[in-house]
Amino acid sequence: MKDLLLVVRLVVIEKKDILYTILFGFLAGIVAISLFASSGYLISKAALAPPLYTMTVMLALLKLCSILRALSRYAERFFSHRATFAILGNLRVSFFEKLEPLASGILQKYRSGDLLSRIVGDVESLQNFFLRVFYPPIVFVLVFLSTIVFTSFYSVYVALSLLAGMILTGFIVPILFALRQRHIEQGIQSERGELSTEVTEFLYGFRDLKIYRKLEERERRLLELSDLYIREQERKEGLANFSQTLNTLIANCVSWAIVALGAYQVVTGKLDGLYLAMLVMISLNVFEYSIPLAAFPVHFEDSRRAAARLFSVVGKDATMKLEPDSEIYNLDQDAISIDINKVTFSFSDHTRPILNQVSLTLPAGSKTAIVGPSGSGKSTLLQLLMKMQIADHGRILLNGISVDRIQEENIWKSMNVVLQENHFFYGTIKENLLIARENATDEELEAALTKVQLDGFTLDQAVFEKGENLSGGEKQKLAIARTLLKGSRLWLLDEPTSSMDALTEQNMYRHLFNQAKNDTLVLISHRLTGLEQMDQIIVMDQGMVVESGSFTELMEKRGYFYGLKQIEKSVLF
Fold first, then answer.
1. Which CATH class is domain 2-314?
2. Which DSSP category does 294 fall into?
């Protein structure tokens, strides 16, 4: 329910449209009931052969009610749907504002298919919250209470019958079915997420499934999940139909009860027979507003589950807040110094720390290599520098300022980053390069391609989704070209040339080091060749710094780095 309250807060932002929706919804209901009441009264009055002018006035009122009903119903639909679109916009913006700071690590917690199901499916489910859950009960209560007050002037028993019908159809039946719906909806949400996840895995892994002859097995699994999801949907629809049928039955029973009570009161002289048809017509029409409430449990539970699943992704403290009572700093345009002081970090599902009491000093303009075996925490350290993750303990300072006091955008603006996995968007080479600097000219883009030995590519050449038509080396070259175009003063390079041959790698580093001559550069590498030009080398193992120094110092020490270098020599030569 706490998650649903977050949705309510986003709903009430649109106060004006909500007020208009309730107002015109109430007006449409009252006018519709007045139309039926007038029709019933006119039928009874016509039987007494009244003067023609009386009938003319009554017919004119009927036409006026018809016009008012159509206009008010249109206004209700207009404002309710406008409010819904605005609420969905508010919901998406609010959710993505909370999601953005978690983007780097979110896929470590959620599988992509499940995440897509939540972001798309659950947000779409919440479009029914305002239209089916929030305002219809308010209109229902207002219309029913007004009708009960009106009918009480003619017959208290009829008014009490309508009150009993309102309680049964508007509260008791929906509550009972809401409790039953909760279990079914839980299964539907779970099955939808699992089906989305498996479909995503199937599409991404189609080639490997084909190679290893596991395609038919995975297809059977998808069909089983699809059938299970369909069965759960059928249960949900069946329960909703049963609830609506029960509400209709209760409404008809109340209407028959009003006919019987009214007839009895007419016979006993407690009710003028002229109003009997009017009261019956009122009862037939007013329950039209209770029948849709039969679907209230479905939409309420659907909205509650969707809100819970959606906001569970971002959690309560999703945004990486700045330190309280602190200024918001911008990094200078000069080279950036880095100080890491006793930093410890672990992922939520890891028992051992990924980084353990790491301390480093990287002066402005220095060139630093971080080496070590896989899993030693090198890439995680870069994520902390980029504020993609937040350290559990310790501090990271950029130019003497804690990263907690610098907005993420200001940190990223000052960095040239090449990661192990770089994303490329569906489009052209030019569009993927302009991400780095949107005002770059074609000549500058072509020069960047030439530097990374992609001069055979044209700017209009197509790039498929995730760069599927590019080789591993071409992807890395294109990523390096983007960093060369950006031209910031802090370079973070994580295995930028791992898919290139030695000669191409040497050429890449020549351009990188030439452009970063006066900048701060941090290079993560498994290869130990070519590190002689680095100012310092940091050797990591099991999340800790085990050695540091220049290439010459580490080789003379004959320690951990020396051993790694000897192993590399024995393997390569």
1. mainly alpha
2. G
